[in-house]
Amino acid sequence: MNTLISHGATWAALKQHQQALAQVQMRDLFAQDRQRFEHFSVEACGLFLDYSKNRVTQETLDLLMQMAAEANLKDWIARMFRGEKINNTEQRAVLHVALRNRSNRPILVDGKDVMPEVNAVLAKMRQFCDSVRSGQWRGWTGKSIESVVNIGIGGSDLGPAMVTRALRRYHHPRLKSFFVSNLDSVHLGDTLAQVNPETTLFIIASKTFTTQETLLNAQSARQWLVSQLGDEKAVAKHFVAVSTATDKVSAFGIDTTNMFEFWDWVGGRYSLWSAIGLPCAVIIGMNNFEEMLAGAHDLDKHFETAPFDQNLPVLMGLLQVWYSSFMGASSYAFLPYDYTLKLFPPYLQQLMMESLGKRVTRDGLNIDYATGPVIWGSPGDNGQHAFYQLLHQGTQLIPADVIIALESQYPLPRHQEAVLSNALAQCHVLMKGRTVAETQVELAKKLQGEELRQRIPHSVFPGNQPTNMLVYQKLTPRMLGTLTALYEQSVFVQSVIWGINAFDQWGVELGKQVANSLLPELTGENVGGGYDGSTDGLLKYIRGKK
Length: 546
Ligand code: F6P
Fold this sequence. Notes:
Helix content is 49%, strand content 11%.
């Protein structure tokens, strides 16, 4: 598409439609249509989506579907699954779907089927995981591994950390896991203080193997290990790497037989399904890891084949476009009422903000509409006692996805009913609010006169805050795969509508470049300045304090 989607007829119709809907209250939409819940809910792959508490009507959905057709969404989905180079600015195919292609149907990149390589790495991962888990893999002094430390950042950290946290009930009883990402030596230092060098395995995870944070942490971990065990040769027993860059792994000093490969057609934030998943695969076992791949594959098949009005990622992606580009929502919240998903919001933050935080189209045209929103969130129950006040009575429109499990991974009497009642209550109140009249009736039970009059404005809830409710039975590895893939594909839907490339991240480069040039200013190797008044002033101040 080399014109903006906003110049098409459907965009104008949606703009007009938004004006007509701007003042409409969802509570009235429910009153008008007794079947609204049935009309606006759908179930697939073990996930039930209630999207009836959105500021939409059937007309909104029809127009959004029309826009999806205008953006050739069907064709784009097919192009991704066919292995076309849809990451145009890097001339790469986008094939995280091949990593979880449990059907094994051939997927071609430059005429070559990638499935044999994918399967070979999975087989190598299985062998490695089995040997660590069984205790056969021995450290330098002959002891079995007890701690697995992943060193990586961004996509080489957030996905595996999220999965490892979510599937704690499936952990191997002997193995502990740690994730080190931050440059601040506190992160590595705190971790090293908790592990024994003789029984620790470091996984150095970096797609490019050039990332400053990862390489510096890996070097320091290596020094620590050698100094503790007293022999360089110990490294081979305690360090493995996951990367696309064999030469750089070898230059770092890791034997490439201990390297797990992936490919440039896997984006960093989409790499959880590749060998980047190794730290979680070791901890939860390869069978569970492959179950997760199977769950993601279930979702991919659904995405490829289900009609758009029954298609979970399509519906959810279009709703996000509706709120960002038409309703003026600049942020979107994720509120899991499933504590195992504690790290899901930060994982989604990278997935969505790095993919959709773009201001030009694939063809480089300046965009004249709002694209990806700010993504944030936390487990819902904790959020209720922290930031929900703003959702209920603040001044911003903040749509949210509320995610609930019917069964906890750790059942205790009465907990799950309490969790569910809170999730349902919050969504109900966010949608319905409480009018002045309703507030008056309620408060009059306890207050009267001037006190009652004064309290009313503080106790009114405007409502009309949209939520999707996503429900599943229990967070098994398969369900986690399905849920995660759902959001990946919903991001793809949004990117296609907006005409942007969801698979590059040029916006992270300049900061890295400037940090590299600033480093010698701080080590004293090159004191040149010339950045800007504030930065030069701060450099001087910091140097003065050393
Ligand atoms: O700086 C951003 C980024 O490139 C992410 O896209 C990526 O997930 C992360 O850094 C880590 O990159 P790598 O896996 O190459 O170390």
